[in-house]
Amino acid sequence: MNLRGRLVEVGEEREVETQYGQRSLAEMTIRPDGVGSADATDAADGDATVRVTLWGKWTHTADLADPGMDLLVTEAEESEYRGETTYATSKESYVVLEPDFLVDVTDVRSWVQCPRMYYLNKLSGIPLNYPVVKGTVVHEVFGDLLRGRDLEDSIDERVAEAGLQLGLLGYDAGEVRDEVRRNAAAIEGWLAQGTLTGEAADAASSEWDGGPSEDEWRSEYTLISPTFGIKGRADALRRGMPVELKTGKNLKRDPRFQDKIQAAAYALVLAERGVPADTATLLYTKNTALDRNEESGDLSPAKEFSVGKGLLDFVVRKRNEIAAMEFDFSVPTGFEADARCEYCFEQDTCMVVSGRLDQESKAGQIGTPLPEDEREYFDHLYRAIEEERRETHREYRKLWEQSAEERADDDRALINLDYLDRREIAGERWELRARKPDGAVSKLREGDVCLASDGDPVGGHAELCRIRELGEEVVVTADEPVELRRLDVYPSEISVSRMLTALHDALLKGSEDRKDVLFGRRDPAFADRSAETYIDNNEAQNRAVRLAVDADDAALVHGPPGTGKTYTIARTVRALVDEGQRVLLSAFTNRAVDNALEALREQGFEDAIRVGTENGIREDMLDLHLETAGDPNDRAAELNDAPVVAATTSSCGSRMMREQSFDVALVDEASQLTEPGTLAAVNLAERFVLVGDHQQLPPVVRAENDLQESLFERLIDRYPEASVMLDRQYRMSQRIQAFSSAEFYDGALRPADGAVAAQRLSDLGVAESALPEELRDPVAFVDPDGSRVGNTNPTEADRVAEIVDAYVAAGVDPDDVGVIAPFRAQVAEISKRTDVTVDTVDRFQGSSKEVVLVSFVATGALDGPIFEDHRRVNVALTRAKKALVLVGDADALGSDPFYARMLHWARR
DNA sequence: ACTCTGCCGAGAGGA
């Protein structure tokens, strides 16, 4: 049986005499309830504790354990001792610390080389370098070969796909193709050997009947292990045994140890799925025929080795070391292993990082430590980012912990799909189709990468796929055919990793000048190089452009709703380019990046490149999109020569963008970005301009931590003189903007001119007299006397729909009406009753409508965190141009001073 | 208690 629980007490290791001789043991006390999977609670009832003895080598894990950690013992032996039921590890047992902390297989690999290498990889990311790019190409070609694809076709296409990266590294396609061809020859030679003849091609063409079966080849197998807390992707499986491809050379008789560990980790995860693998193969594809002819005779690329329980135990223990270290956010020193620093390629990096961050390390330190406030900042954000990582792991857990129905409720999956069929498509890939059940909704969108499965994404057959169509019929493409019954959002740690690298780059690679400003040691400096006038009809906008052009370090532009931020940004970019500056134009969302580009083009500027994934970019900006595939030189030149590069801040953290440098980074929506998120863009430039509004929604983070305050907000508080507030708004009538202006902008936000101030529905040809009495004021309040049911209020939803109808009946175009609600549940409720746009506040940010209705849902009292952040209300109330209707319960709204003032204003 | 956009995916190599 499996035993799992929270550690209450951790006993010391001790030696005892047994019938098998002297053995070591350590006794643990755990509280089995309330943790993890269902079988965790098999052992005991209530909050009783149980004792479990860890024998032999598992005392190593006991040594790492601390009270509070989650402990899992598989195949535990139960025995009675003086009336008490106790447990102990058996021969088959594994002991897993913090199984919910998902460790990547490659992390185990680097940890085995040196724990410090694990840390350095995590911190600084893997930079753009040729071995990685070529390695990736070879892996892709390998997968293609296994699927029976023509070798030359595959090499041509895969090398072309890596065009931009190769170009940035200064390689040309021909030489790379030749080199890949040499690696591929080793693969082909191996595939053709002895009993393997023709197998790959046979497997590829054979009928597929679900999960992996014994005699088949599989490429790119996505594996997640809830039991062992490991995830990863095996390069291939042959007859259920992992095959790991290496692009390098290994002329020794045995595989490299860390490579064995990597392959063994895949074998471990396969064992959990009931497909035990007792052998694994490492394929060193740089070993050539020439090498083979040498005397030892066994230098073929393939090295097989057996995977016994002892090796698997070792993998689990190493994985436990990582989990234990991450549990209290500690930093590995390198002393945990007996790696020899003098042979290590990372020695210099390791010493610099140790020296600058004042970390203990086996390699020693170089250089002087960063100032204390910078180190504190690092420690603080490092921890916050790691907390975010754990929240991402929770998303993984939902893949197996939630029942299908719960999963459906939380919007992150489409379940119970009716599998229709599959079809082989170009590139030896597959197109899979299924029918969606009526009314199923999810956050999945066309173009997303997600996990397609036969209904069981963890224990069954799952493949990463891309969504092509998401209508009544669901169409996805994948490398292997799955019986498509379920689609899940595939959680990714990418944004977390990128935050970490941005933090690292800012502190360890960033210029002192910039850090002085970031850490409040020096006020931002300004030169006098701007022209007098850039924008002649809006004094604040003009000042904003001048501030940005004059900034030697940083400028901050505060743009409340409707104040022409995007226009000002575009004008600023042009002014900077005119000064000969190379500009990075960035923002949190794709939408904002595209809006800024659109404004640039409207102002006649076209010389920009849009970097990012194709499906994130709006169609009318795709002509500016930088293709990553193609001739290396051309692709690299396109990027390197662009005076303006536009990308989301997330893309700025990509390997390719990290190689770019700019004079100025201009970041929109900066108030919605975490500090590390902002740094990803800021790091790439000499100077930066942040544009945002800290009175609107803050950054979205999963964990409660200090990532919630944006760099924009921190800096604007610290350096008000380096900022300009755009104070003229072009969106709302005087009546509508009054409350927001008074509450959030000290009354400084004003209509740009009389026409904006005085706009009314009659301007749209609507007869206001046709509206019910209660709606004739541009700001109205309606209390429908409903009651809150969960996060909905059906009566209020009815009333909202009636009001929408009233506006439409009076002549308002339905496209000009929008409804906003705080909860998604209420959004769904209202959507059932009307065809106009209905969305949450958060999703409405950035857009506007002539008529806006806000449904507050709450009755009786304002219970819930969603009502606590008044900035959300600011967003909701500032979407309307000519008419705004607040629909809610007067008692609830009156119970809080802020909402009471809002009510007072609305009722006037 | 609630809100939720990004990004792609994990990788490789060098004594």
Task: Provide an overview of this structure.
- InterPro entries: Coronavir_polyprotein_1ab, DNA2/NAM7-like_C, DNA2/NAM7_AAA_11, DNA_replication_fac_Dna2_N, NA-bd_OB-fold, P-loop_NTPase, PDDEXK-like_dom_sf, SF1_C_Upf1.
- Its EC number is 3.6.4.12.
- Residues 46-237 form the DNA replication factor Dna2 N-terminal domain.
- GO terms for molecular function: 4 iron, 4 sulfur cluster binding; 5'-3' DNA helicase activity; ATP binding; DNA binding; hydrolase activity; metal ion binding; nuclease activity.
- The chain has 31 helices and 35 strands.
- The radius of gyration is 30 Å and the shape is globular.
- The strands form 6 sheets. Strands 1, 2, 3, 4, 5, 6, 7 and 8 form an 8-stranded mixed beta sheet that branches.
- It folds into 5 domains: 3-35 and 47-97, Nucleic acid-binding proteins (OB fold (Dihydrolipoamide Acetyltransferase, E2P), Beta Barrel); 99-191 and 213-338, Lambda Exonuclease, Chain A; 406-493, Beta Barrel (Elongation Factor Tu (Ef-tu), domain 3), CATH 2.40.30.270; 515-726, 3-Layer(aba) Sandwich (Rossmann fold); 734-907, 3-Layer(aba) Sandwich (Rossmann fold).
- The protein is of the alpha/beta class.
- Strand 12, helix 9 and strand 13 (279-284) form a beta-alpha-beta unit.
- It starts with a strand and ends with a helix.
- It is 37% helix and 21% strand.
- It binds one DNA strand of 15 nucleotides through helix 4, strand 11, helix 15, helix 21 and helix 28.
